[in-house]
């Protein structure tokens, strides 16, 4: 390298004998290339360097025309590689080699051997030098290589290194445009040809170079204009036909790479379709399916076909919700304001952006990597760095006079307990009964004991769907109803539904209700109907779903996370592509449509229904005999948020596999690709004594589809597509009625029923109050619970202890689609009301204020994320509106009132569900851990923080099998500054302010590793949260429990159910998922919002998470 630096620009003649001898020795060593001769080579080259540095004549002789000296020196570089090439680059060798290339090109004719060696070395050096393309362009090396290539198209010896260097040049986007203008694209097509066993290495490099050039839109348009797309397809077909032994898969894949880059532009996709590219790639790919080694070809072909598949319009008249609710006033700005300002005649399903977009390369791995980088950058940008905002400070924002209205919700602070009967200061208002009759599922008394197994042949099970009826119950229908331990009969006047009712016959019916009273003490079908009558919905539902009426008994068997079969996503995508290849095979028959209000039932198709509380299914289209496209309804006063579904299916055939495709999903990632299954409830199973939701479905996957998503719904982003969630089900019973749901449904009426049943569990030792916090937009009540222990006596000491108990404030279900939050809350409430010694100790330790459902309207109307205001209520905590967000406004008011009287809660926790991660975990707030994630320099005083915010999550990680400390995060993000967790921490001053996230899928650690989560595990999590609070109390006040026998039970419980945590606390970027062999076309995005809102990583910190004072107490 030093020799080259000295010789770089010299030209003269003849070699003296000494230099000639040294060069001969060096050439001999280059030919042998023995590793042990490295020292000898170094010794010889050092002598040559000494000669050319001290003797001008020698330097001139080596660089003379016709001299072989330079070739020998270059050859010594050529045989070296790896680390040596890296050293050459670091020492500036690239510039010297390029300068030598320029110098050599000025000779005429240039030395072919020297050019060969220079391009061979440059081909090695180029990939190691990140600025190689820029250096080559500045030095003028591009034109030299192109000129040499044009002159040597038939000289294969020189052609290969020139192409290799050109490939490196083309990696630079500016170089690619420049080379395209110089006719390199046309030049490369002169080399590309039909199948041949000769010169395959040259062809491979040519195709790789062409693919790099075609990443430029200008070059892609140039290729389209010169009709190269049909040429590439013809060449690919030829290689596919002749490469029968699959020895040249790399060449076939390289051809597809060129096609893939051309089709990144609209003109390329159009040319591909006109050249019959869909049929060609579809037929060649199907022929490759049986050979596993050809998967790279199939995957690339699949990507190209999906990208070129014409964008379809989502088959709905508008992306707005079918149901409309007029708001009391429209927000001044935001998505809801834009929705209301939108002219009524605007087509919001598609817009011109869907036709004019030049989409980026939609490669599976590339997209995923790019999204990972984007998410990593977004995370850092989203972290709050303003220390003044990170400092918790009380900010009441409302006058103290206004906050006095909440005093009536805290009678426990002024109660003297001289009167034994407790009365609420605000009893729940008696809600008006529904004007319309409530339609309840019934049947002609089929015997639950006579049902056969799969197939349902014979007995009373035959023709069940024909016998199932919906009975209209008036107010007095339930009165005087007969009861039996096995069957509860409900009779009434039938309401015949000509539109969407799937099984009405106009006769009286009797419903066989399974006797589950012992298993479901908080469930009562008759009470549930009574609760439904007081529930107000925008669509004015009059039907009740069987699962909500029967109840759910958690199955005793384990439900493992589904192991995905390799190639399932690809198979589903190919079936979708077949719709375009064979359009005559597609039925395209609408069988259910909330927009039309009228359906045609020919008896050949499945029957659908979602017109019941929490139901969500807008449209069902029969695509093939056993395949249906399903469209979900948007949240009311919104045009997106499609994730929650809950619908009924009947009219199925036994033994036939039905494929269901939910085609308007919006999130780019889903646990359905990682083992999560949908939930199904069979009425036949329920009547036979097994009323339960079970995980079901095979061939489940989630992928981007060809339905275009309007920029209006995508927040202004153009060129977006919807995603498909597909699953296959084989029904076991004839004439069954089945329900499918995203997660275990938990309706508002169910909550009201459970709360009423909890009243019956109250003992003289339990202080329980049920108040109505406020009325929602839809006219439903928002319940507020107060639970603690009654004082042991009316003595002043006992009353004082009662009034001075710290508060724990719990909320749940702000997002309607996160039904698991309600099941966790159910477990918490049942534990708090239980007679166990631990529950009594817990009640004696705290006063619990609980709002179990923050968004009743959203839950009732089948929304996924919003309330009737069309807004995410968990983004309204900073400035909630009393008119649009009453539940948030008044819940925050309760907390502000406690702050104003110096009774700030010890713990605040908001229960949520998480659709992108496994396990249960917490998000908290920490100044220190937030600043650790940034480069902000903070004073030492800013980093002083009590670590007690980690105590509760740490206890849960030791106590609850489903809880993962490794997934917890305590970073405060800008995008979350208006959430409950951050606002309660910052404005109310609650240091232990959390969001507890429960997975919708399952666990990948601990006792439940590899299992999907069920209601039993969720309720257990709610109970374990209570036990963790009890241990938290013991850590902070050990003297109070020194003689308490109840804590022996706590310790035993801790020991028995402790989950071994093997991983240290680390930051979690996106999904903790193992890599899957099959490429997946989606990338990581936000937690639960379509907008980018990534969850930040957690900072490594003290694993124990206890403050110094707590550590000292525990050691003592």
TrEMBL record:
Molecular function in Gene Ontology: metallocarboxypeptidase activity; zinc ion binding
Domain Peptidase M14, chain residue ranges per copy: 744-1033
Keyword Zinc applies: yes
Catalytic class of the enzyme: hydrolase
Stretch list, region Disordered: 346-390, 1071-1116
Gene Ontology CC terms: cytosol; mitochondrion; nucleus
Gene Ontology terms: biological process: proteolysis
Catalysed reaction equations from the record: C-terminal L-alpha-aminoacyl-L-glutamyl-L-glutamyl-[tubulin] + H2O = C-terminal L-alpha-aminoacyl-L-glutamyl-[tubulin] + L-glutamate; (L-glutamyl)(n+1)-gamma-L-glutamyl-L-glutamyl-[protein] + H2O = (L-glutamyl)(n)-gamma-L-glutamyl-L-glutamyl-[protein] + L-glutamate
Active site: 997
Cofactor requirement: Zn(2+)
E.C. code: 3.4.17.24
Pfam family, one: TPR_CCP1_N
Biased composition (Basic and acidic residues): 373-390
Biased composition (Acidic residues): 346-372, 1071-1107
Family: Belongs to the peptidase M14 family.
Annotated protein name in UniProt: Cytosolic carboxypeptidase 1
Naturally occurring in which organism (per UniProt): Scleropages formosus
